[in-house]
Amino acid sequence: MGRLDGKVVLVTGGSRGIGRGIVETVAAEGADVAVNYATHADEANAAVEAVRAMGRKAIAVQADVSDRAQVEAMVATVTAELGPIDVLVNNAGIESIVPFLELDDAEWQRVTNTNLKGPWTVGQVVARDMVGRGAKGAIVNIGSIQAGMVFPGRTHYAPTKRGIEALTTNMAAELAPHGIRVNCLHPGLFDTDMTSWVMDDPEILPHVLEKIPLGRAAQPKEMGPAVVFMASDDASYITGQSLYVDGGMLIL
Ligand code: NDP
Question: Could you report the per-residue pLDDT of 204-214, keeping only the tens digit for each?
Fold first, then answer.
């Protein structure tokens, strides 16, 4: 018996990194999975094959999370092919490092569109569908350690991740009467394409690891169990909360 048996889970940005880890973990708990991606179709299809190898259904679905028309088409496709969505994991995100004084409007817009407008848009489209069906469900938003810590060059990225906390609490309050729970998970340092500039640099990596009490980066699959907890009935009385999955980074 898996903790997500028979559930349909949509993971945005499920093609790579943390999202890919979440895809495999929820499938191992019995879920059928829709793997959303932006451009990397091969990686999304590989994630789909990994899920099917576990005996669960899966599809890859391309959509820019910040584009409402694409999001509505994605939700319609998932519903038609896998069934109505029970769990949404708002994971897709992008990061860049640009000093505040050099940041321009285009980069601010690009990052905030994906990281904040994206979870808001997908969350609203999925929640409207759940409420319309009278279905209870769960939404898990993926934030960042940068909701609670300052790193240089992130005056565009960090506000999106602090903003996801406010999105989480406000969505949780409005959706609770409908039986929909909304929670947030903040990753610390995970070994993915996004962090390869840290992980692959023997000069930088030791300085970052010094700031992590557990002394290492996480593997992508280490986010999945926290998602399963928040999405399953194990967390039936938890909503509007944020949990740092960061090896203790925030406490130093
Ligand atoms: P990756 O760069 O490894 O993967 C990003 C994923 O997001 C890919 O699947 C990508 O799709 C997808 N994506 C990007 N833009 C869009 C878009 N507009 N629409 C749909 N999908 C999109 O990132 P990580 O796995 O490292 O990060 C996952 C989440 O965790 C992000 O929200 C990130 O901010 C957060 N995070 C990560 C940390 C880390 O240490 N790695 C630390 C703190 C937070 P495609 O493959 O098609 O490009």
Answer: 999 999 999 99
